[in-house]
Amino acid sequence: MPLLADTPWGGIEIADAHVHFFSPAFFKALCEQKNSDFVADLLGWDDPTSPEALAMRWAAELDKHKVERAMLIASIPNDTPSVGAAVETFPERFSAVYMANPMLPSADIRFQSAYKEDQVTGVFLFPAMHHYSMHDDKVCALLQVVAGHSHPVVYVHCGVLSVGFRKKLGLPCHFDMRYSNPIDLHSLAMRFTRINFVIPHFGAGFFREALMVADQCPNVYLDTSSSNTWLRYLQGNSDLTGVFRQALDVLGPRRLLFGSDSSWFPRGYLRNILDLQIEILRDLGVDAAGAQDILGGNLRRLTGVGSK
């Protein structure tokens, strides 16, 4: 397996908790919404020929940057066959979750099938995008099914939600921030203790609230992914180093998951995100064990891969 050797702690096994899998089905959906066959050209992106080919490209990209493993995110509702093909092709490299909309018919039954047939680990929920409360009975029904499986993981996007490629294509982004508060996750995390919940991007502007929920619920994790442009909403002179410092003070290194938010080609893997976060962890004096947890060990434990 790849080992990132050039770190302040020596060799580290990197596992990325946040990589989008923009499959052929994803591009097809965008083409239908845009009413154009040239969405990839408009974006300047490569259009993959098949899920298997995209999986091979991501595996080679991870090798290039010495990343051992990645959590792939199917980024249109119910695109489980695409990530399933990637996991089947490279089970030693990929785990997967998929965008689920609990308001769609039979979302709980769909997960049963996706878990069995496509080997998904869990779901990624976007309440603000799909306009529902986390307290809706349909959400609870889905979580009840997810909780019955091995190593269940549920990502819940909170805070600011900005989809740059939709803006570039002139497609509407009808998000409702009433449903973006991490506090909504508190009672569910207390109820569904078998599920490991992940709040991406440090809460994407709701950092304080994300910390509060995670502090109260030991099954809530924060991922560190993206450029974290939400920092401009913080008061004072807070920067990403300060965010890491506070997250480590409240949660320790065992409940932070490194993520890059990598997504499209030819841009490929966002190595600059990894390098910056390694530098921050070094500057904060995080020891080798803590760095290994954040940069890969925690994700492997959540997914049951190389658990320690």
Short description:
This protein has helices spanning 24-34, 39-43, 51-64, 80-89, 107-118, 127-130, 137-147, 164-169, 186-191, 207-216, 240-251, 271-283, 288-303, and strands spanning 14-21, 67-74, 94-99, 122-125, 153-156, 196-199, 220-223, 256-257.
Structural overview:
By secondary structure, the protein is of the alpha/beta class. The chain has a single domain (14-303), classed as Metal-dependent hydrolases (TIM Barrel). It is built from 13 helices and 8 strands. The protein has helices spanning 24-34, 39-43, 51-64, 80-89, 107-118, 127-130, 137-147, 164-169, 186-191, 207-216, 240-251, 271-283, 288-303, and strands at 14-21, 67-74, 94-99, 122-125, 153-156, 196-199, 220-223, 256-257. Strands 1-2-3-4-5-6-7-8 form an 8-stranded parallel β-sheet, with helices on both faces. The radius of gyration is 18 Å and the shape is globular.
Which bin fits the share of residues in helices? 40-55%
SSE arrangement, N to C: EHHHEHEHEHHEHHEHEHEHH
- Rg over CA atoms: 18 Å
Domain tally: 1
CATH class descriptor: Alpha Beta
Task: Specify the overall morphology.
Answer: globular
Strand order of the largest sheet: 1-2-3-4-5-6-7-8
The total of beta strands comes to 8
CATH topology: TIM Barrel
Low-confidence stretches: none
Q: Determine the strand fraction and express it as a percent band.
A: 5-15%
CATH architecture: Alpha-Beta Barrel
Main sheet attributes: strand count, strand direction, barrel closure: 8 strands, parallel
Helix run count: 13
CATH superfamily: Metal-dependent hydrolases
Distance from N terminus to C terminus (CA atoms, Å) equals 17 Å
Q: Average pLDDT across residues?
A: 96
> What class, by secondary structure content?
alpha/beta
